[in-house]
Design goal:
The chain is of the alpha+beta class and 317 residues long. It has two domains: 157 residues, Porin chaperone SurA, peptide-binding domain (Triger factor/SurA peptide-binding fold), CATH 1.10.4030; 102 residues, Chitinase A, domain 3. It contains 13 helices and eight strands.
């Protein structure tokens, strides 16, 4: 039986409607809502994606509830951020994504391809990065004063650690580098002769003024301008060397590409600048304060969040 031209358009609409319903029904089934957090859904697809990401990050397989809890925490953090006007832009998140790739020696495109090979979409990573950006800004911004670590606490912790007093105090060094020049390609005997000369000068020189007068007129030798450095800015071997060298004297000679080098120690004084050990302790104390404040804050806002578990979730099954 032939279809009349009057019915043909309605037939086409009906077929299109069936196709649209079929296509739209499939992803809905694949993305079943498992939890609602303040009116925002966490789907089974979200859980699957985050599970893969957590496994890649930690090299451990998380439980389903661990994954759900992390996703709930992120929803709560992002909402709290909006409450205080902390809402990273797409550009901020893309920059964090690029930085993440850079730390792994990858471009953003390479990172995306690497994630895709392991079944993880970039949006999954960016969602976590967004929550981290929001939460870091919130905790540091709202609890700035209570996170401060004062010098007294740092020094007490250092004393209790059993470290020596040199590590408790910071020092500022005033130095003048000295070079006995040896031409490139010169035989080793020349270098050895200059090294012996340097040792002889070390025994004679008793002050930086004396070093300056001597090296300004000495042939094939130079004394450079004064350099001021704190102990926290110097590598451990150099700090130890400077500590052992009395003020006005020269450090032991060292063979370099320019010749034989020494350092005239012109001054040392105690400063309030952190030593490397103090910096390490300060950072650990700050991290501990941040961790506790972050945990307490998150617990508080989760209590007031509207969390509804649905089919496939933990509660109400």
């Amino acid at each position: 039986m032939k279809m009349t031209s009057f019915l043909r358009p309605f037939y086409r609409v009906a077929i299109l409607g069936v196709l649209l319903f079929a296509c739209s029904n499939a992803p809905l089934h694949a993305q079943t809502v498992v939890v609602m957090v303040n009116g925002e859904p966490i789907t089974s697809f979200d859980i699957e994606q985050r599970s893969r990401l957590m496994q890649i990050s930690t090299h451990k397989t998380p439980t389903r509830q661990q994954v759900i809890d992390e996703l709930i925490d992120e929803k709560v953090k992002v909402k709290e951020g909006k409450k205080y006007g902390v809402n990273p832009t797409s550009s901020d998140i893309d920059q964090a994504y690029a930085s993440m790739g850079s730390r792994m020696r990858m471009s953003p495109d390479q990172l995306t391809k690497s994630l895709a090979a392991q079944g993880v979409r970039p949006d999954t990573v960016k969602a976590r990065l967004k929550a981290d950006l929001v939460w870091g800004s919130l905790v540091r911004g709202r609890f700035k004063d209570s996170l401060l670590v004062n010098d007294r606490d740092v020094n007490e912790a250092l004393r209790n650690s059993g470290e020596d007093s040199a590590k408790i105090e910071g020092f500022e060094y005033r130095m003048r580098p000295v070079v006995l020049i040896v031409p490139r390609g010169a035989p080793s005997s020349v270098m050895e002769a200059r090294r012996k000369e340097a040792n002889s000068l070390r025994e004679r020189i008793q002050s930086c003024d004396e070093a300056m007068r001597l090296f300004k007129v000495a042939p094939n030798a130079t004394i450079r301008d004064t350099v001021i450095k704190s102990s926290a800015d110097l590598p451990p071997p150099l700090r130890e060397l400077l500590d052992k060298t009395p003020v006005g004297h020269l450090t032991p000679p060292e063979i370099t590409r320019q010749g034989v080098e020494m350092v005239a120690v012109c001054g040392k004084k105690v400063t309030s600048v952190d030593t490397p050990k103090k910096k390490e302790i300060r950072e650990k104390m700050y991290a501990a304060k941040y961790e506790k404040k972050s945990k307490d804050y998150l617990e508080d806002i989760r209590k007031s969040a509207m969390i509804e578990y649905r089919q496939g979730g933990k509660k109400g099954e």
